[in-house]
Q: What sequence folds into this?
């Protein structure tokens, strides 16, 4: 099991958080997704290796941006 | 047909707008709902008389507040 963190830009409310969680949860291997709205911190737990690009793409699919 | 306007407080993004539109659309008699996010202006068109209290309750159900 591994944990990776990202910072997401543009979320303004609980609906935004839900959208990000929903999309990132669908990434292969992901077992748990947590989002802290005030800081934009996205914490992704997984069973095995997860492609960072897949997480970034999922965040963008939700309509937000990962800060590099 | 009549049109009433309200000011809604607390909406921060398009998801918020969707929630308000969805709830207010369910109020009896309402035929059209428009929301302007930057100003919070909610415009409600209806076939017949609509109870203001029902619109206010719908906005609150969505998680926001009508400014009086």
A:
């Amino acid at each position: 099991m591994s944990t990776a963190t990202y910072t997401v830009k543009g979320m303004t409310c609980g609906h935004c958080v839900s959208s990000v969680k929903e999309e990132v949860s669908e990434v292969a291997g992901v077992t748990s997704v947590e989002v802290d709205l005030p800081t934009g911190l996205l914490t992704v737990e997984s069973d095995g290796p997860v492609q960072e690009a897949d997480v970034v793409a999922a965040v963008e699919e939700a309509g937000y941006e990962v800060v590099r």
